[in-house]
């Protein structure tokens, strides 16, 4: 080579290529495979992809501000026959014509038993199947509804208004019996909406195998009853038009002035009991709302959720870490194993909306990273004798 071509090639080999070889490991270590923080909640099960590589990481360590279980394995674990029990006690103070919802991701084979009552007349529960983020069709923002196209498959629901000593009535219903029950009642829309709190500096898990409670609604920042919208049933009609193909349950709560806490539901008294057997995986939302002439209505509910668990069989001790706050796994070169993290929920635990910070760290594989500086030195030596 002669002239300009030789100068260009020489510059590329002596400046650009060494620069790439120096910058690449810095980018990989500090950006591509940097430490990753996740916000996860009680009963979450996640699979970690981000910030991990079987080539550039020789170890994968985890640290969280609460105990967790971790498993290193190929693919996705299978569901076991054993189910775990989660008990949630919820007390809500809802202004007239407002709502509050609690959502759960449930596998086929799970079941939910809901007991509830209200202090005054007019409180109801609406159960719908939705997406990861509940689609409210713009209703909470005051917009005209936009129908959610997602359709519910057959789901068995048992609704009972009962006294623990003498059952008053028991009806088995499917979704078609519940679509337009009491559509003529009113709820007023508001422009506030509360979704699950997510810090933007934290990352969302790549693969969510199971997840905890999703909580939201428009009853949180209202201090006085709305007097602007007096149209009959406008908001609830929009709710039914939004969720008509997804509605599983729509029932009034029995009311009593003595319904002032969840202990009332464990006494010998009358309450609404819903038994919901899940036949298809998905997100299920229990929407509580009130429509009466009082400024506030107290609603108390107890969820007993029985969820299938994942099974991790035939795993060595080096591939699993149980009930720890820190774990470390060796990563084999070209391995397709990933780490699954679950926040355990003990049987009968009264679960709250607690969230935790999980730190995932890739420990660099020195034998791979050392290639970059050695390559730069070899280039320098090579061109020194040209």
UniProtKB/TrEMBL annotation:
Keywords: Membrane, Transmembrane, Transmembrane helix
Protein species of origin: Euphydryas editha (Edith's checkerspot)
Sequence ranges assigned to domain E3 ubiquitin-protein ligase APD1-4 middle in this UniProt record: 273-383
Transmembrane segments: 7-28, 366-385
Alphabetized Pfam families for the sequence: APD1-4_M, APD1-4_N
PANTHER family the record matches: DUF4793 DOMAIN-CONTAINING PROTEIN (PTHR39077), E3 UBIQUITIN-PROTEIN LIGASE APD1-4 MIDDLE DOMAIN-CONTAINING PROTEIN (PTHR39077:SF2)
Domain of life: Eukaryota
Keyword Iron: no
Protein name per Swiss-Prot or TrEMBL: Uncharacterized protein
InterPro entries xref list: APD1-4_M, APD1-4_N
Keyword field contains Metal-binding: no
Residue ranges of every copy of the E3 ubiquitin-protein ligase APD1-4 N-terminal domain listed in the record: 65-132
